[in-house]
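User: My instructor asked us to take a sequence, write out its structure as tokens, and then describe one feature of it. I'm not sure where to start. Here is the sequence I was given:
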Amino acid sequence: MENKTTKKKSKKKEKETRLFKRIITEVKKWREILHLSEWRLEIKLDDLSNIDNDDGTKYLAITQMIVPYRKATIIFDVNIQPTEIEIIVIHELIHLIIHPIVFEINDSAADRITQAEKNHLGNLEETAVSRITSIIMSQEKGDDKR
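Assistant: Let's start with the prediction itself. The structure tokens for your sequence are:
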């Protein structure tokens, strides 16, 4: 007979498996739509609750890239809600389009750019990615308000 702890772990694992499958489905869909087939992607699910954003909010996903090799790992928080998956997937994939520009600026100006300027570029990237994601989601929902 299974004890309560084993049953709880089993249910948690089942939930994470369903979540992971849903994430993979959305990544495949949006990777094709956004023409990102040249990127090698690794998708992971992890508890990101202990990692705070600069503004104190929690991460829902983190994308780590090796831009010259077009390789990325996207780590999704195990606690994201199913209704948030699509927007988070789109947001993280848009980083794959925008970040190489920031990378090139940082790389080409490495000896002339301050940390504050690098941080500013990162903030600009995040703003652009968020706006593009919002536009895409509006179009997906058929909302033509601009």
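For the description part of your assignment, you could build on this observation: The mean pLDDT is 90. Try explaining in your own words what that tells you about the chain.
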